[in-house]
Amino acid sequence: MNILVTGGAGFIGSNFIKYMLSKYDYTIVNLDLLTYAGNLQNLKDIEHEERYHFVKGDICDRDLLSKLFHQYDIQAVIHFAAESHVDRSIDEPEVFLKTNVFGTQALLDTAKHYWKVHKLDKYCTEYKDDVKFIQISTDEVYGALGKEGYFTEKTNLSPNSPYSASKASADLMVRAYYETYKLPAVITRCSNNYGPYQYPEKLIPLVISQALNNLPIPVYGDGKQVRDWLYVEDHCSAIDSVFHNGRIGEVYNIGGNNEKENIETIKFILNYLNKSEDLIEFVEDRLGHDRRYAIANTKISEELGWVPSNTFNDGLSKTIQWYLENRKWTMSHISNANKTSKKH
């Protein structure tokens, strides 16, 4: 099978490509524009693998997409590519609309045209066998929770930031292409990921980087925002399950069953690194900051038998160790990360 992975040089995408190549005899084409969060160093250990091909390009470039589908006979799309930093979306929402909404639509159009059986019939709803479009989304499209309860696949979409609104819009476009054109598509929505190769503007790698350099760690508001944390390898295994066994037209929530207050996570990291909590610096809260996210894994667990393998303490310990052993990688990103706030 030939799979197009968009955004494969990013954090989750690069982990997913390596996961899939290690498990299956697939060919993977990685399309990535290499913006600030994309880094080919994430994939250096597989760059000479015959089943892996990197293409630098924009998912909004329809001519390029058409060329790739024809050149590599693409049979599946795993769509990670997205602008994903909440603070950036507050400053430049139009950038998020362009990539996350129009880029997704360009991919859907290309897949629809290339995969349909009768290409000259624009209303054709018959597609080649075993083709599939997987939209990788986020729990942030649901908005915020109260102190109790969980997001389920039936929770109404109530995005509170330009980022989450753009992802919700992309999800609805994927749903529309399934409902209108019968394009074989599935949507996954995950909780906060963490693990190796995560760009240091995000909470966990930023805290690690700042602590290692004895720099202040800015914490929004009171730091009691709750996030459900998902180790990136567990996310990869969940996407694998959905890709091979998920029902077409469905949504699957993927969570780690690891709810933690941000301040608790930060203190764990500081304690692990033997750093003082005096590094914590409380700052003004972010605009539209969601208070709590938490995902119910019931559907993916009952239908596909997937459950996360890593506890938060184990996953976070492995993550910290990776950053300690790869400080050169981390240091090369700190200058850019320090110019932005983190998503947490």
Account of the protein in words:
With 344 residues, this protein is of the alpha/beta class. It has a domain at 2-193 and 231-254: NAD(P)-binding Rossmann-like Domain (Rossmann fold, 3-Layer(aba) Sandwich), CATH 3.40.50. Helix content is 41%, strand content 17%. It has 11 helices and 12 strands. The chain has helices at 11-23, 62-72, 86-91, 93-115, 162-181, 203-212, 232-245, 262-272, 298-304, 312-325, 327-337; strands at 2-6, 27-32, 52-56, 76-79, 132-138, 185-190, 192-194, 217-220, 226-231, 251-254, 259-261, 280-283. The strands form 3 sheets. It has a 7-stranded parallel β-sheet with strand order 3-2-1-4-5-6-10, sandwiched between helices. The relative contact order is 0.14. The model is unreliable at 335-344 (pLDDT under 50).
What topology emerges from the helices and strands here?
Elements: E1 2-6, H1 11-23, E2 27-32, E3 52-56, H2 62-72, E4 76-79, H3 86-91, H4 93-115, E5 132-138, H5 162-181, E6 185-190, E7 192-194, H6 203-212, E8 217-220, E9 226-231, H7 232-245, E10 251-254, E11 259-261, H8 262-272, E12 280-283, H9 298-304, H10 312-325, H11 327-337
Parallel strand pairs: 1-2, 1-4, 2-3, 4-5, 5-6, 6-10, 7-9, 8-12
Antiparallel strand pairs: 9-11
